Amino acid sequence: MQGATRFVFPIVMAVIMSFVMSAVITAINTGIDGGFALRWLTAWSIALPIAVPAVLLAHPLALRVTHALVGKPPERTEEA
Q1: What is the C-alpha separation between 18 and 14, in angstroms, rounded?
Q2: For residue 50, what pLDDT band results from cuts at 50, 70 and 90?
Q3: Most exposed: 3, 17, 32, 58, by fewest CB within 10 Å?
Q4: Whole-prediction pTM value?
Q5: What residues contact residue 55 under an 8 Å CB cut-off, 6+ apart?
Q6: C-alpha distances in angstroms, 42 versus 25, 27, 29?
């Protein structure tokens, strides 16, 4: 990943994952009823500010582990 993409992509993933996971965990723990949406958004408002810095800190390690598992991608060469 190059430029801003290497920072924006993990943040977008953190937003999506924290949104989905907070919904699932809230539903499992408290059920889905009339107050579910408020409980879910409350949980997400707590999860999101934790998820974004966590993913930015974990990103370099995740890349190293990925490269170790699937092989390092070839070096990009600039074309004229």
Answers
A1: 6
A2: very high
A3: 3
A4: 0.77
A5: 10, 11, 13, 14
A6: 12, 13, 14
